[in-house]
Amino acid sequence: MTPVELSRTVLRAVRRAVDAGELSVAVPSRAMVAPPGPGGCGDYATNVALQLARPAGRPSLQVAEILRTHITDAEGVSGVEITGAGFLNITLDGGAEALVRDILRRGVRYGYVDEPTGRIQRLHHPCEVRAAVTGQVLARILRTQGILVRTSCERELDPAWAGPLGVTVEAHGRPGTPAALEDLDVNLRPVPAPEDPTPLGRDAGRWALLHPAPHDRPRITADHLVQRETNPLFRVRYAHARARALSRNAADLGFDSAPGDVRPKESQKESLKESQNETNNLPPSLLTALAGYPPALTTAANQHAPDRLARHLVVVADAFLRYQEATRVLPLGDEKPSAAHRARLALAEAAGTVLAGGLSLLGIDAPEHL
């Protein structure tokens, strides 16, 4: 679908909303569509909801919600997300299958650049537990972007926390002359940990240090160990375990995944709409989160902020958990596995792959069972 055709699709959606009495506005003569801006997603975005909000006498987000249903139902549209004050972000057909294939083909290296960039960065940090963990993880993230990295610490790591947390560094001491120290690309000094994180164990301890932004004070509390949905680390690891469980269950039923169309068929849409919030839980939200993983890696590398990766893993996990709750991935009873089941399973496996890759970069285990 070209931008001109998509613009006409958007205008038809407005006209349908007007004809249904959902909006009381004059249908505009044109609807601008363009690649999404910062904070956007999908293939194209339009501000038509903001344009119509005042004439309709409604908040722009409410107008966007009305239009989203009509645009989502249009042929050639895979999904629609609302961002900001009411921008409609549209994903077109064809992209979903290609995205899932790419993730499954590349595995945990999805999001990595293909060739070295020739850039070199040296990371130097004090002998402090959060700085050391941050330096190790940031080096891994920078390498995904084709950057050659060398790490150093002011002095030898303290084995009391380096061993339990799995922290390593390539060199100790001040790297060369004072002038050379001033030339370092990055001198890592995140806000120090207020107390020893090792009692939390390797996974929770690293998450407690990496999930907050470097300028925020980390919380070293037992909250990181609780196995309930209020704990972001639990949600991320649980989502990975659920994805792996779906693959095992499918194998027991005698079928495997095959990327394809994960959108519900017309016969399924009516039953899905029985839930008021169902449209928020359909694949486009998960597809958007998966497509946003490579940009999240790039941002984490450019801003020297591993928390950007950790936070995006939470986004992926939450989108996947909503998806698998709202979508019947596996056949029930005597039902035979269909192409739709295989496509949904492939999408679930893609989510698990992204979660596994991201957790690996953070140095955190991705469990098969939880």
UniProtKB/TrEMBL annotation:
Start-end of Basic and acidic residues biased regions: 262-276
One Pfam family from the record: Arg_tRNA_synt_N
Keyword ATP-binding among record annotations: yes
Entry's EC annotation: 6.1.1.19
Class of the enzyme per the UniProt entry, highest EC level: ligase
Sequence segments annotated as region (Disordered): 252-283
UniProt xrefs under InterPro entries: Arg-tRNA-ligase (IPR001278), Arg-tRNA-synth_N (IPR005148), Arg-tRNA-synth_N_sf (IPR036695), DALR_anticod-bd (IPR008909), tRNAsynth_Ia_anticodon-bd (IPR009080)
Sequence ranges assigned to domain DALR anticodon binding in this UniProt record: 236-370
UniProt KW Ligase keyword: yes
Listed GO MF terms: arginine-tRNA ligase activity; ATP binding
Reactions that this protein is recorded to catalyse: tRNA(Arg) + L-arginine + ATP = L-arginyl-tRNA(Arg) + AMP + diphosphate
Residues of the Arginyl tRNA synthetase N-terminal domain: 4-92
GO cellular component: cytoplasm
NCBIfam families: ArgS_rel_codon
Protein name: arginine--tRNA ligase
Native source species: Streptomyces montanus
Taxonomic path: Bacteria, Bacillati, Actinomycetota, Actinomycetes, Kitasatosporales
